[in-house]
């Protein structure tokens, strides 16, 4: 007898389904809201635009985007949330019933289930370092983005942030650890133009029970 080993995406799906069942999808809003709101301001979203939230988790950031793009003179903006965890997607759908301009799709960054040249803006919050083949994910992102589209990847776990590195061994799935300069080079290699890195200060107050630095 032989068991088939899970693929990288199946491992991610299992692990993040576990997170979702433990309520981590919703809890992450508390930790990521400040930096996400600041990033969304940089995105220059306009009513009527089409946005992708890749690795959308429980969908709180997808809803932030959906409110901004909703109704505009050029039509109704639309947001698509994609996540490899079907349980995150189920929870995101449940919490977004009041929105008629959001679609959540279960799928992987390795093969984004969407048509080409579609999205004006892409946001991805604390998700990109999990993608098994980041080059392939970038090729997929490039494919689904509209000409002149803009992408915003929020990455807190990276080489130049020594405090973040404690997570590498605590997480139960492999992650990439690149430097800011390596990320810039990777994006340029995959045909992205005007690539820049910005440090977004996180003003979330440290909880009283926080154990680490
Ligand atoms: C740390 S959580 C962040 C979730 C959400 N963006 C937030 O800030 O609350 C990482 C998310 O990325 C998703 N993810 C990981 N690998 C993925 C992949 N290959 N394709 C799509 N989503 C993925 C996970 O399922 C999880 O929901």
Describe this structure in words.
The chain contains seven helices and seven strands; from the N terminus they run H-H-E-H-E-E-E-H-E-E-H-E-H-H. With 213 residues, it is an alpha/beta fold. A five-stranded parallel beta sheet has the order 5-4-1-6-7. The longest helix is centred in the N-terminal third of the chain and has 20 residues, at 24-43. The radius of gyration is 17 Å and the shape is globular. The termini are far apart. It binds S-adenosylmethionine (SAM). S-adenosylmethionine binds at residues 9, 12, 16, 28, 32, 55-57, 61, 82-85, 88, 108-110, 125-127, 130-131.
Salient structural properties:
single chain, 213 residues, alpha/beta, two-stranded antiparallel sheet, 38% helix, globular, binds S-adenosylmethionine
Summarize the structure.
With 213 residues, the chain is of the alpha/beta class. The strands form 2 sheets. A 5-stranded parallel beta sheet has the order 5-4-1-6-7. A two-stranded antiparallel ribbon has the order 2-3.
Category from helices, strands and their pairing = alpha/beta
Kindly report the average pLDDT value.
95
Give the distance, in angstroms, between the N- and C-terminal Cα atoms: 47 Å
Describe the strand arrangement of the main beta sheet, using strand numbers.
5-4-1-6-7
Radius of gyration: 17 Å
Supply the number of helical segments.
Answer: 7
Sheet-strand content, in percent, reads 15-25%
Number of strands: 7
Topology:
Layout (H helix, E strand, L loop, with lengths): L7 H14 L2 H20 L6 E5 L5 H10 L1 E2 L2 E2 L1 E6 L2 H10 L6 E5 L12 E7 L8 H11 E10 L11 H5 L9 H10 L24
Helix pairs in contact: 1-4, 2-3
């Amino acid at each position: 007898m032989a068991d088939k080993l899970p693929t990288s995406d199946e491992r991610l799906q299992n692990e993040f389904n576990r997170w979702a069942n433990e309520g981590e999808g919703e809890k992450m809003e508390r930790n990521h809201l400040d930096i996400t709101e600041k990033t969304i301001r940089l995105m220059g979203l306009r009513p009527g635009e089409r946005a992708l939230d890749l690795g959308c988790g429980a969908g709180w950031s997808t809803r932030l985007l959906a409110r901004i793009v909703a109704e505009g003179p050029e039509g109704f903006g639309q947001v698509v949330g994609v996540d490899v965890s079907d349980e995150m997607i189920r929870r995101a759908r449940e919490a977004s019933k009041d929105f008629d301009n959001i679609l959540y799709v279960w799928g992987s960054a390795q093969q984004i289930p969407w048509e080409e040249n579609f999205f004006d803006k892409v946001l991805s919050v604390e998700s990109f370092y999990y993608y098994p083949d980041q080059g392939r994910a970038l090729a997929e992102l490039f494919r689904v983005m509209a000409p002149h589209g803009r992408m915003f990847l929020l990455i807190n776990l990276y080489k130049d942030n020594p405090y973040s590195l404690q997570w590498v061994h605590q997480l139960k799935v492999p992650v990439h650890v690149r430097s800011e300069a390596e990320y810039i080079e990777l994006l340029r290699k995959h045909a992205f133009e005007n690539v820049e890195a910005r440090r977004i200060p996180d003003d979330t107050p440290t909880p009283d029970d926080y154990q680490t630095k």
